[in-house]
Amino acid sequence: MFTGIVPPYLLARLAQSEAPELHDAAMAAQKTLRHDEPRRARLTFSLDADHRLVAELSDAPNRTISDGHGTEALPGTPVRREGDPAVKDAAVNEAYDGLGATFALYSEVYARNSIDGKGLPLDGTVHYGTGYDNAFWNGERMVFGDGDGQVFGRFTSSFTVIGHELTHGVTQYAAGLIYKDQPGALNESISDVFGSLVEQYAKKQTVTTASWLIGEGLFTKKVKGVALRSMKAPGTAYDDPQLGKDPQPADFAHYVQTADDDGGVHINSGIPNRAFYLVAHRLGGHAWERAGRIWYDTLLSGLKPTTGFAAFGAATAAAAAARYGGSSAEVAAVRAGWSGVGVAIDGDVAA
After folding, report:
1. Which residue intervals of the chain are DSSP H helices?
2. List 168, 266, 281, 286, catalytic entry
3. DSSP per position, 56-110
4. Which of 3, 113, 199, 246 could disulfide-link 237, Cβ–Cβ 3.0 to 4.6 Å?
5. Residue 65 forms beta bridges with which residues?
6. Quick one: which of 150, 155, 198 has its CA closest to 68?
7. Are 340 and 351 spatial neighbours (Cβ–Cβ below 8 Å)?
8. Domains of the chain (ranges plus CATH)?
9. pLDDT in tens, 242-256
10. Angle between the N-to-C axes of helices 159-174 and 291-299, in degrees from 0 to 180, rounded to the nearest 10
11. Annotation says 56 is catalytic
């Protein structure tokens, strides 16, 4: 399982570009695809005894940012540790701040001590590879490319990217959803949900002031697009002559059946993404408080690795009922959210 933030279908489209002005970007995309493919086959998202570095149980992050110096050798050279002042390298500081913002959401809102709940140190490597168009969690650390400079910029620049990838670690420890078809799309969606909430919590945004964009600012000004994905309006994040149009469906009626991308995990995640947005929008206020709490409770509720959309939707309704009461506004919002994307739960009739 490989969970890089940039979907393989977008990289594949860029790699095929014959536009002279995107030659370097196309070459970088080809290199990134060749690099990522074996990782998709070999990553298991598990930590052995040598890698399980558990800090003392304390409600504070333990961050180390390393510099890969343009190589693919991990971890690289440590350049900023917990408590160190900012350095001159923007990527180092962005990674440090993004790891901290993710820790803060999980600790301060959900009382979770780091990714594993036991104080796992948060490590990151910046300047990975040359023109590497992705960022990923490899089971023990965050890894960031600098982008090709034509289509993608630094992958450290987005809190949603960092929160997304680290949440794959939370899901790894809490639920273990398989990375294929609907469970895989849920895995991706959960990362988008909490990636967005990391940014919203850090900036104290409400459901109406938040952008609900994943990877906003990653594209250079040459691209006709605003982000990798939109939770509010899946399928509208970009529409570019070279990259094509954002392929995400916004409802289950347009679910994409495909063998590519592990069964369309990055594409079909738009469906549960919009369900969460609809729930949060209906509840109003700060999305991390009630909608996020329901999703977090669901993540800890004992999901099966093969959980699909309908079962996950039913689990969110059950989590809402357990916390707020069966006749609560929260339960009504959850049911309306899933109905709004055409997913029927517990006998409900989807719209």
Report:
1. 8-15, 23-42, 90-104, 159-174, 181-203, 261-268, 270-283, 291-299, 309-324, 329-340
2. 266
3. PS-SS--EEEEE-TTSS-SS-EEEEETTPPP-S-HHHHHHHHHHHHHHHIIIIIT
4. 246
5. 80, 124
6. 155
7. yes
8. 8-174 (3.10.170.10), 181-340 (1.10.390.10)
9. 999 999 999 999 999
10. 40
11. no
Per DSSP, the three-state class of 171 is: helix
Q: What is the pLDDT of residues 255-300, one digit of tens each?
A: 999 999 999 999 999 999 999 999 999 999 999 999 999 999 999 9
Which among 94, 127, 164, 165 is annotated as catalytic? 165
- What is the amino acid identity at position 75? P
Distance, in Å, from the CA atom of 226 to the CA atom of 230, rounded to the nearest integer, reads 9
What does the angle CA 271 – CA 135 – CA 137 come to, to the nearest 5 degrees?
85
Q: Which of 310, 334, 179, 294 has the alpha carbon at shortest distance from 252?
A: 310
Burial class (CB in 10 A: 0-12, 13-18, 19+), 42: exposed
Model pTM greater than 0.85? no
Q: Is 35 a catalytic residue?
A: no
Distance CA 125, CA 140 (A): 11
| Per-residue tokens: 231 | 């939770």
Work out the end-to-end distance of the chain between its first and last CA atoms, rounded to an integer number of angstroms: 34
How far CA 60 is from CA of 71, 113, 292, 347, in Å, comes to 31, 8, 21, 44
Provide Rg for the chain, Cα atoms: 19
Given a contact cutoff of 8 angstroms between Cβ atoms, the answer to whether 106 and 60 are in contact is: no
Contact between residue 114 and residue 120 where contact means Cβ atoms under 8 Å apart: yes
The residues, any chain, with a CB within 8 Å of residue 282's CB and separated by 6 or more, are 332, 333, 336, 337
CB 61 within 8 A of CB 82: yes
Q: What percent of the chain has pLDDT over 90?
A: 77
Distance in angstroms (rounded) separating the CA atoms of residues 28 and 34: 10
The two beta strands, 77-81 and 229-230, are: unpaired
Buried b / exposed e along 294-328 (16+ C-beta atoms within 10 A)? bbbbbbebebeeebebbebbbbbbbbbbeebeeee
